[in-house]
Amino acid sequence: MTAVTRYAYLRTRVSLMAARLLHSERLEALIEQSGEETDELTEVARDLGLDATEAAAGLTLEQRLVSALLDDYLILLRPLTGAARELVLYATHRVELANLKTIISGKMAGQSAAVIRRELMDMGPFSALPVEQLLRTEDMAEMLRRLDNTPYADIARQARRVFEEQHDLFAIHAAIDRRYFAGLAKRVKALREPGHEEVRHLVGTWLDRTNLSWLLRFRFAYNLGPAQSYYLLIPDTYRLGGAQLMALAQLNSFDEAIARLPPPYGPMLRGAPTSYDVVRILDAETWRQAEVTVRRSTSALAATIAYLLLRERELRALRALIKGRRLRLSPDLIRSALGFEPAVLGQGQPA
Which domains does the chain have, with CATH numbers? Predict the structure, then answer.
Protein backbone atom coordinates (compact mmCIF):
# COMPACT_ATOMS: atom_id res chain seq x y z
CA MET A 1 0.00 0.00 0.00
CA THR A 2 1.49 3.35 -1.07
CA ALA A 3 1.55 6.40 1.19
CA VAL A 4 -1.19 8.03 -0.91
CA THR A 5 -3.38 4.93 -0.63
CA ARG A 6 -2.74 4.60 3.11
CA TYR A 7 -3.75 8.18 3.83
CA ALA A 8 -6.80 8.00 1.54
CA TYR A 9 -7.92 4.93 3.49
CA LEU A 10 -7.25 6.70 6.78
CA ARG A 11 -9.21 9.81 5.76
CA THR A 12 -12.16 7.69 4.69
CA ARG A 13 -12.17 5.75 7.96
CA VAL A 14 -12.04 8.95 10.01
CA SER A 15 -14.99 10.41 8.09
CA LEU A 16 -17.06 7.27 8.69
CA MET A 17 -16.18 7.18 12.39
CA ALA A 18 -16.86 10.89 12.86
CA ALA A 19 -20.37 10.39 11.50
CA ARG A 20 -21.10 8.33 14.64
CA LEU A 21 -20.05 11.02 17.10
CA LEU A 22 -22.78 11.82 19.59
CA HIS A 23 -24.61 15.04 18.76
CA SER A 24 -24.77 17.67 21.49
CA GLU A 25 -28.58 17.69 21.28
CA ARG A 26 -28.66 13.97 22.13
CA LEU A 27 -26.35 14.45 25.09
CA GLU A 28 -28.48 17.35 26.31
CA ALA A 29 -31.55 15.12 26.14
CA LEU A 30 -29.76 12.46 28.18
CA ILE A 31 -28.75 15.02 30.78
CA GLU A 32 -32.38 16.08 31.19
CA GLN A 33 -33.45 12.53 31.97
CA SER A 34 -33.28 11.20 35.51
CA GLY A 35 -32.73 7.80 37.09
CA GLU A 36 -30.37 4.92 36.45
CA GLU A 37 -29.00 3.57 33.17
CA THR A 38 -32.20 3.51 31.13
CA ASP A 39 -33.16 2.13 27.75
CA GLU A 40 -32.18 5.51 26.31
CA LEU A 41 -28.56 4.87 27.26
CA THR A 42 -28.85 1.43 25.70
CA GLU A 43 -30.02 3.12 22.49
CA VAL A 44 -27.02 5.44 22.63
CA ALA A 45 -24.73 2.44 23.00
CA ARG A 46 -26.28 0.92 19.89
CA ASP A 47 -25.99 4.18 17.96
CA LEU A 48 -22.30 4.39 18.84
CA GLY A 49 -21.72 0.89 17.51
CA LEU A 50 -20.92 -0.69 20.87
CA ASP A 51 -20.65 -4.46 20.85
CA ALA A 52 -23.88 -6.07 22.07
CA THR A 53 -22.00 -9.27 22.96
CA GLU A 54 -20.02 -7.29 25.53
CA ALA A 55 -23.27 -6.23 27.17
CA ALA A 56 -24.40 -9.86 27.19
CA ALA A 57 -21.11 -10.75 28.89
CA GLY A 58 -21.92 -8.31 31.69
CA LEU A 59 -19.51 -5.52 30.78
CA THR A 60 -20.57 -2.10 32.01
CA LEU A 61 -21.44 0.64 29.56
CA GLU A 62 -18.33 2.51 30.73
CA GLN A 63 -16.08 -0.44 29.83
CA ARG A 64 -17.85 -0.84 26.51
CA LEU A 65 -17.20 2.83 25.74
CA VAL A 66 -13.49 2.38 26.46
CA SER A 67 -13.38 -0.81 24.38
CA ALA A 68 -15.02 1.01 21.46
CA LEU A 69 -12.45 3.80 21.67
CA LEU A 70 -9.59 1.29 21.67
CA ASP A 71 -11.14 -0.48 18.67
CA ASP A 72 -11.00 2.87 16.87
CA TYR A 73 -7.31 3.16 17.70
CA LEU A 74 -6.66 -0.31 16.27
CA ILE A 75 -8.35 0.60 13.00
CA LEU A 76 -6.65 3.98 12.68
CA LEU A 77 -3.20 2.56 13.41
CA ARG A 78 -3.33 0.03 10.56
CA PRO A 79 -2.23 2.30 7.70
CA LEU A 80 0.25 4.32 9.77
CA THR A 81 4.01 3.89 9.90
CA GLY A 82 6.99 5.68 11.43
CA ALA A 83 6.54 8.85 13.47
CA ALA A 84 2.84 9.13 12.61
CA ARG A 85 2.16 5.65 14.01
CA GLU A 86 4.22 6.41 17.11
CA LEU A 87 2.19 9.57 17.74
CA VAL A 88 -1.20 7.83 17.52
CA LEU A 89 0.05 4.85 19.56
CA TYR A 90 1.32 7.21 22.25
CA ALA A 91 -2.12 8.85 22.39
CA THR A 92 -3.53 5.58 23.78
CA HIS A 93 -1.44 6.11 26.90
CA ARG A 94 -3.75 8.93 27.93
CA VAL A 95 -6.51 6.36 28.44
CA GLU A 96 -4.35 3.95 30.44
CA LEU A 97 -2.86 6.71 32.57
CA ALA A 98 -6.35 7.13 34.02
CA ASN A 99 -5.92 3.58 35.36
CA LEU A 100 -2.53 4.50 36.85
CA LYS A 101 -4.07 7.52 38.59
CA THR A 102 -6.85 5.30 39.94
CA ILE A 103 -4.31 2.87 41.37
CA ILE A 104 -2.26 5.68 42.95
CA SER A 105 -5.36 7.33 44.42
CA GLY A 106 -6.61 4.03 45.79
CA LYS A 107 -3.24 3.14 47.30
CA MET A 108 -2.93 6.52 48.99
CA ALA A 109 -6.49 6.21 50.32
CA GLY A 110 -5.74 2.75 51.74
CA GLN A 111 -8.22 0.92 49.50
CA SER A 112 -7.91 -2.81 48.97
CA ALA A 113 -6.66 -4.27 45.69
CA ALA A 114 -10.12 -5.68 45.00
CA VAL A 115 -11.78 -2.27 45.36
CA ILE A 116 -9.19 -0.58 43.13
CA ARG A 117 -9.40 -3.35 40.53
CA ARG A 118 -13.15 -2.80 40.09
CA GLU A 119 -12.49 0.80 39.04
CA LEU A 120 -9.97 -0.05 36.31
CA MET A 121 -10.73 -0.14 32.60
CA ASP A 122 -9.52 -3.10 30.51
CA MET A 123 -7.04 -1.79 27.93
CA GLY A 124 -7.10 -4.96 25.83
CA PRO A 125 -4.18 -5.14 23.35
CA PHE A 126 -2.95 -1.71 24.48
CA SER A 127 -2.38 -2.79 28.07
CA ALA A 128 1.12 -1.86 29.24
CA LEU A 129 0.65 -1.43 33.00
CA PRO A 130 1.62 -4.46 35.14
CA VAL A 131 -1.63 -4.01 37.06
CA GLU A 132 -1.40 -7.03 39.36
CA GLN A 133 2.19 -6.21 40.34
CA LEU A 134 1.20 -2.64 41.11
CA LEU A 135 -1.77 -3.74 43.20
CA ARG A 136 0.37 -6.16 45.24
CA THR A 137 3.01 -3.55 46.04
CA GLU A 138 2.70 -1.95 49.48
CA ASP A 139 5.19 0.91 49.14
CA MET A 140 4.22 3.75 46.78
CA ALA A 141 7.77 4.52 45.65
CA GLU A 142 8.40 0.84 44.97
CA MET A 143 5.14 0.62 43.04
CA LEU A 144 6.24 3.47 40.76
CA ARG A 145 9.64 1.81 40.30
CA ARG A 146 7.82 -1.22 38.90
CA LEU A 147 7.07 0.96 35.86
CA ASP A 148 10.73 1.43 34.93
CA ASN A 149 10.54 -1.23 32.21
CA THR A 150 7.26 -0.03 30.73
CA PRO A 151 6.41 2.76 28.25
CA TYR A 152 5.58 4.85 31.32
CA ALA A 153 9.10 4.88 32.78
CA ASP A 154 9.68 8.60 32.24
CA ILE A 155 6.26 9.51 33.63
CA ALA A 156 6.74 7.20 36.63
CA ARG A 157 10.17 8.65 37.48
CA GLN A 158 8.68 12.14 37.59
CA ALA A 159 5.75 10.94 39.71
CA ARG A 160 8.11 9.12 42.09
CA ARG A 161 10.25 12.22 42.54
CA VAL A 162 7.17 14.28 43.36
CA PHE A 163 5.86 11.63 45.77
CA GLU A 164 9.16 11.47 47.64
CA GLU A 165 9.23 15.27 47.97
CA GLN A 166 5.58 16.01 48.75
CA HIS A 167 3.40 12.90 49.29
CA ASP A 168 0.62 14.94 47.70
CA LEU A 169 -1.92 13.29 45.38
CA PHE A 170 -2.67 16.45 43.42
CA ALA A 171 1.04 17.03 42.74
CA ILE A 172 1.51 13.43 41.61
CA HIS A 173 -1.43 13.58 39.20
CA ALA A 174 -0.20 16.94 37.87
CA ALA A 175 3.27 15.45 37.28
CA ILE A 176 1.76 12.54 35.35
CA ASP A 177 -0.26 14.89 33.12
CA ARG A 178 2.73 17.18 32.59
CA ARG A 179 5.03 14.37 31.47
CA TYR A 180 2.35 12.85 29.24
CA PHE A 181 1.87 16.10 27.35
CA ALA A 182 5.63 16.62 27.12
CA GLY A 183 5.90 13.20 25.48
CA LEU A 184 3.09 14.09 23.09
CA ALA A 185 4.86 17.31 22.08
CA LYS A 186 8.09 15.37 21.49
CA ARG A 187 6.34 12.97 19.10
CA VAL A 188 4.64 15.79 17.20
CA LYS A 189 8.04 17.42 16.69
CA ALA A 190 9.32 14.14 15.21
CA LEU A 191 6.85 14.38 12.29
CA ARG A 192 8.74 15.17 9.10
CA GLU A 193 6.41 14.34 6.19
CA PRO A 194 4.83 17.15 4.16
CA GLY A 195 1.36 18.08 5.31
CA HIS A 196 2.03 17.55 9.00
CA GLU A 197 2.08 21.28 9.77
CA GLU A 198 -1.65 21.08 10.54
CA VAL A 199 -0.97 18.37 13.13
CA ARG A 200 1.60 20.60 14.80
CA HIS A 201 -0.87 23.49 14.83
CA LEU A 202 -3.74 21.38 16.20
CA VAL A 203 -1.71 19.77 18.98
CA GLY A 204 0.33 22.91 19.65
CA THR A 205 -2.71 25.10 20.24
CA TRP A 206 -4.20 22.34 22.44
CA LEU A 207 -1.02 22.38 24.54
CA ASP A 208 -1.09 26.18 24.76
CA ARG A 209 -4.70 26.17 25.94
CA THR A 210 -3.93 23.42 28.44
CA ASN A 211 -1.00 25.39 29.84
CA LEU A 212 -3.06 28.54 30.12
CA SER A 213 -5.99 26.85 31.85
CA TRP A 214 -3.62 25.04 34.24
CA LEU A 215 -1.72 28.22 35.05
CA LEU A 216 -4.82 30.24 35.90
CA ARG A 217 -6.26 27.39 37.95
CA PHE A 218 -3.04 26.61 39.85
CA ARG A 219 -2.23 30.25 40.50
CA PHE A 220 -5.61 31.78 41.31
CA ALA A 221 -7.94 28.89 42.26
CA TYR A 222 -5.44 26.73 44.18
CA ASN A 223 -3.36 29.76 45.28
CA LEU A 224 -0.02 28.17 44.42
CA GLY A 225 3.01 30.43 44.20
CA PRO A 226 4.28 31.76 40.85
CA ALA A 227 7.27 29.40 40.67
CA GLN A 228 5.28 26.27 41.56
CA SER A 229 2.46 27.18 39.18
CA TYR A 230 4.93 27.64 36.34
CA TYR A 231 6.85 24.44 37.20
CA LEU A 232 3.68 22.35 36.86
CA LEU A 233 3.13 23.46 33.25
CA ILE A 234 3.97 21.49 30.13
CA PRO A 235 7.58 22.45 29.25
CA ASP A 236 7.00 22.40 25.48
CA THR A 237 5.03 25.37 24.20
CA TYR A 238 3.74 26.43 20.80
CA ARG A 239 2.86 30.12 20.48
CA LEU A 240 2.19 30.91 24.14
CA GLY A 241 5.84 30.83 25.19
CA GLY A 242 7.53 30.20 28.49
CA ALA A 243 8.39 33.87 29.07
CA GLN A 244 4.73 34.87 28.59
CA LEU A 245 3.53 32.15 30.96
CA MET A 246 6.09 33.13 33.61
CA ALA A 247 5.02 36.77 33.37
CA LEU A 248 1.39 35.77 33.85
CA ALA A 249 2.35 33.62 36.86
CA GLN A 250 3.95 36.67 38.50
CA LEU A 251 0.68 38.63 38.47
CA ASN A 252 -1.32 38.96 41.68
CA SER A 253 -4.94 38.59 40.56
CA PHE A 254 -7.05 36.57 38.17
CA ASP A 255 -8.56 39.70 36.59
CA GLU A 256 -5.11 41.19 36.00
CA ALA A 257 -3.96 37.99 34.32
CA ILE A 258 -7.00 37.94 32.02
CA ALA A 259 -6.41 41.59 31.10
CA ARG A 260 -2.77 40.86 30.21
CA LEU A 261 -3.40 37.82 28.00
CA PRO A 262 -2.07 38.09 24.44
CA PRO A 263 -4.34 37.53 21.43
CA PRO A 264 -6.31 35.44 20.74
CA TYR A 265 -6.75 34.56 24.42
CA GLY A 266 -7.45 38.04 25.75
CA PRO A 267 -10.57 38.62 23.62
CA MET A 268 -11.62 34.99 23.99
CA LEU A 269 -11.54 35.03 27.81
CA ARG A 270 -12.51 38.63 28.53
CA GLY A 271 -15.31 38.59 31.08
CA ALA A 272 -14.66 35.03 32.29
CA PRO A 273 -15.34 35.28 36.05
CA THR A 274 -13.39 32.24 37.29
CA SER A 275 -10.67 29.79 36.29
CA TYR A 276 -13.41 27.16 35.90
CA ASP A 277 -15.01 29.31 33.19
CA VAL A 278 -11.61 29.68 31.52
CA VAL A 279 -11.25 25.88 31.34
CA ARG A 280 -14.76 25.56 29.92
CA ILE A 281 -14.18 28.23 27.26
CA LEU A 282 -10.77 26.89 26.23
CA ASP A 283 -12.03 23.31 26.10
CA ALA A 284 -14.96 24.40 23.93
CA GLU A 285 -12.54 26.14 21.57
CA THR A 286 -10.39 23.00 21.37
CA TRP A 287 -13.42 20.90 20.45
CA ARG A 288 -14.54 23.51 17.91
CA GLN A 289 -11.14 23.43 16.23
CA ALA A 290 -11.20 19.63 16.24
CA GLU A 291 -14.67 19.67 14.63
CA VAL A 292 -13.41 21.92 11.85
CA THR A 293 -10.31 19.79 11.33
CA VAL A 294 -12.29 16.54 11.07
CA ARG A 295 -14.62 18.08 8.51
CA ARG A 296 -12.26 20.10 6.34
CA SER A 297 -8.63 19.11 6.80
CA THR A 298 -6.73 17.76 3.83
CA SER A 299 -4.31 16.10 6.25
CA ALA A 300 -5.46 12.58 7.13
CA LEU A 301 -3.26 12.54 10.23
CA ALA A 302 -4.59 15.88 11.48
CA ALA A 303 -8.16 14.64 10.96
CA THR A 304 -7.25 11.47 12.88
CA ILE A 305 -5.89 13.36 15.88
CA ALA A 306 -8.89 15.70 15.82
CA TYR A 307 -11.30 12.77 15.72
CA LEU A 308 -9.56 11.12 18.67
CA LEU A 309 -9.85 14.36 20.65
CA LEU A 310 -13.59 14.44 19.97
CA ARG A 311 -13.96 10.72 20.71
CA GLU A 312 -12.21 11.14 24.05
CA ARG A 313 -14.45 14.11 24.83
CA GLU A 314 -17.47 11.97 24.06
CA LEU A 315 -16.18 9.19 26.30
CA ARG A 316 -15.52 11.57 29.19
CA ALA A 317 -18.95 13.15 28.82
CA LEU A 318 -20.80 9.84 28.76
CA ARG A 319 -18.85 8.43 31.71
CA ALA A 320 -19.57 11.57 33.73
CA LEU A 321 -23.22 11.38 32.70
CA ILE A 322 -23.50 7.74 33.77
CA LYS A 323 -21.91 8.43 37.16
CA GLY A 324 -24.06 11.52 37.69
CA ARG A 325 -27.22 9.60 37.00
CA ARG A 326 -26.17 6.75 39.28
CA LEU A 327 -25.75 9.32 42.04
CA ARG A 328 -29.10 10.84 41.05
CA LEU A 329 -27.59 14.27 40.58
CA SER A 330 -29.74 17.02 39.12
CA PRO A 331 -29.38 17.85 35.40
CA ASP A 332 -27.80 21.20 36.32
CA LEU A 333 -25.12 19.51 38.45
CA ILE A 334 -24.37 16.99 35.71
CA ARG A 335 -24.21 19.74 33.11
CA SER A 336 -21.86 21.74 35.32
CA ALA A 337 -19.60 18.73 35.91
CA LEU A 338 -19.38 18.19 32.16
CA GLY A 339 -18.66 21.85 31.44
CA PHE A 340 -21.27 21.19 28.80
CA GLU A 341 -21.78 23.68 26.00
CA PRO A 342 -24.21 23.13 23.14
CA ALA A 343 -22.16 22.84 19.92
CA VAL A 344 -19.24 21.14 21.62
CA LEU A 345 -19.85 17.56 20.50
CA GLY A 346 -20.65 16.31 17.00
CA GLN A 347 -22.81 18.64 14.96
CA GLY A 348 -23.79 16.37 12.13
CA GLN A 349 -22.09 14.55 9.32
CA PRO A 350 -18.52 15.53 8.52
CA ALA A 351 -17.75 16.95 5.14
Answer: 197-298 (1.20.1690)
